[in-house]
């Protein structure tokens, strides 16, 4: 039994902010789907019930990931990266498949590059998180673990 209990790791405030903004953005998208007439929306040929369902899915996923971050669960950073990767791919595929406006079609190469950069950064963070050395009480006291 250890003499000292390790303090919990600090909350990742930047990731919490990012996940909260994603949840709020998707709440706004769901609200827009319900309240704005379809004639006034951006010309993306996605049915309103499907758009509402997708928005609510991302809200629930972001709230769940935010809870894991707040509770400092062990794999919360990996869940956050998975959420952001999934949302970035969803957004890009949604534009590729359902976009009808010429302006949006012309932005697809730029959006593809930005999405690829986001994915690379998030994947690098996940790889770093998985391969980082684990801090234990024995390593804090200057001893290597015999296990």
Provide an overview of this structure.
The protein is mainly alpha-helical and 147 residues long. It is 70% helix and 0% strand. The chain contains five helices and no strands. It has helices at 13-35, 48-70, 76-98, 102-131, 137-140. Helix 2 runs antiparallel to helix 3. The longest helix has 30 residues, at 102-131. It is flat and about 65 Å long. The two termini are 15 Å apart. 14% of the residues are buried.
Topology:
Blueprint (H helix, E strand, L loop, with lengths): L12 H23 L12 H23 L5 H23 L3 H30 L5 H4 L7
Order of helices and strands: HHHHH
Structural class: mainly alpha
Q: Shape, please? A: flat
Secondary structure: number of strands: 0
Alpha-carbon Rg, integer: 20 Å
Low-confidence segments, given as residue ranges, are: none
Overall pLDDT metric: 80
- State the end-to-end distance: 15 Å
Q: Count up the helices.
A: 5
Strand content: under 5%
Helix content: over 70%
What kind of sheet is the major sheet? none
Structure characteristics:
flat; 147 residues; mainly alpha
Quickly describe the structure.
The chain has 147 residues and is mainly alpha-helical.
